[in-house]
């Protein structure tokens, strides 16, 4: 069952979301050719500890994955699309990096992700990243009372189609609030005007992610990292968004 949040609870989620925006800005700005991927993980751990926040990833043990997740970030590089397990890797010029973070502050969760080019951007990566951002903007615009969830999902799929990218429906957005994953699941494509009726107080993590040339994914031997099945690159944009009486409110936007 989806839990509707009060204005006060949304404000608490906003506090968490503003901190996540800080984390994403710090980590994506830090990333540069020659840097080890693990430096981003260690920086995030320090920032989370200094803030007195709690990582939603540490000890996370869903039905997939191999054992509890013992990191505070998901760091996905190039053809890794989701749940990238931080590991020893030195960035090369032109790598495509996605940073995904969820934390809790005072019992309230927010979740966001951002893809960036490390060093010199490849035009095809810039286009892929922009597609996920455009899809996220389209979905956010539909986060209004009385909208059906299928309309939110359909808007993401429409942007993917416009850009010519396929859509995987195994993983998508989700409800959140007191925990990282709550009902409902939010597919990245759907049928407009169908599905759950969204109301004031709905809080969702919307997360369009696309692989350049496939909708199929594979698991790495680490049991966590998901990659495009054909080796094509992937990008991912995510915000935590609340439906308010005044329309959509992006809780993970910069302060």
From TrEMBL:
The positions annotated for binding a divalent metal cation 1 are: 100, 111, 238
Q: Which ranges form a coiled coil?
A: none
Q: What class of enzyme is it?
A: hydrolase
The cofactor note reads: Binds 2 divalent metal cations per subunit. Has a high-affinity and a low affinity metal-binding site. The true nature of the physiological cofactor is under debate. The enzyme is active with cobalt, zinc, manganese or divalent iron ions. Most likely, methionine aminopeptidases function as mononuclear Fe(2+)-metalloproteases under physiological conditions, and the catalytically relevant metal-binding site has been assigned to the histidine-containing high-affinity site.
Top-rank taxon: Bacteria
Required cofactor names: Co(2+); Zn(2+); Mn(2+); Fe(2+)
| Pfam entry (one) | Peptidase_M24
**UniProt-listed InterPro entries:** Creatinase/aminopeptidase-like (IPR036005), Pept_M24 (IPR000994), Pept_M24_MAP (IPR001714), Pept_M24A_MAP1 (IPR002467)
What function is annotated for this protein? Answer: Removes the N-terminal methionine from nascent proteins. The N-terminal methionine is often cleaved when the second residue in the primary sequence is small and uncharged (Met-Ala-, Cys, Gly, Pro, Ser, Thr, or Val). Requires deformylation of the N(alpha)-formylated initiator methionine before it can be hydrolyzed.
Extract the HAMAP family matched here. Answer: MetAP_1
Q: What is this protein called?
A: Methionine aminopeptidase
Species assigned in the record? Tsukamurella paurometabola (strain ATCC 8368 / DSM 20162 / CCUG 35730 / CIP 100753 / JCM 10117 / KCTC 9821 / NBRC 16120 / NCIMB 702349 / NCTC 13040)
Identify the taxonomic lineage of the organism of origin. Answer: Bacteria, Bacillati, Actinomycetota, Actinomycetes, Mycobacteriales
């Amino acid at each position: 069952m989806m839990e509707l949040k009060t204005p006060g609870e949304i404000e608490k989620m906003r506090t968490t979301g503003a901190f996540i925006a800080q984390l994403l800005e710090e980590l994506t700005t830090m990333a540069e050719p020659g840097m080890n991927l693990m430096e981003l993980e260690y920086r995030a751990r320090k920032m989370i500890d200094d803030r007195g926040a709690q990582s939603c990833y540490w000890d996370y043990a869903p039905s997939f994955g191999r054992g509890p997740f013992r990191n505070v970030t998901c760091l996905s590089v190039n053809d890794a699309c989701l749940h990238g397990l931080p590991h020893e890797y030195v960035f090369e010029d032109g790598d495509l990096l996605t940073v995904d973070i969820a934390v809790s502050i005072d019992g309230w969760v927010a979740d966001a992700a951002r893809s960036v080019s490390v060093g010199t951007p490849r035009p095809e990566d810039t286009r892929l990243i922009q597609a996920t951002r455009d899809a996220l903007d389209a979905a956010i615009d539909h986060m209004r009372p009385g909208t059906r969830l299928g309309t939110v999902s359909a808007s993401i799929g429409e942007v993917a189609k416009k850009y010519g990218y396929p859509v995987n429906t195994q993983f998508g957005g989700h409800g959140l609030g007191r925990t990282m994953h709550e009902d409902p699941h939010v597919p990245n494509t759907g049928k407009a005007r169908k599905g759950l009726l969204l109301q004031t107080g709905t809080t969702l993590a919307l997360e369009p992610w696309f692989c350049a040339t496939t909708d199929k994914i594979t698991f790495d031997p680490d049991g966590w990292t998901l990659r495009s099945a054909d080796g094509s690159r992937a990008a991912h944009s995510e915000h935590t968004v609340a439906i308010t009486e005044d329309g959509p409110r992006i809780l993970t936007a910069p302060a």
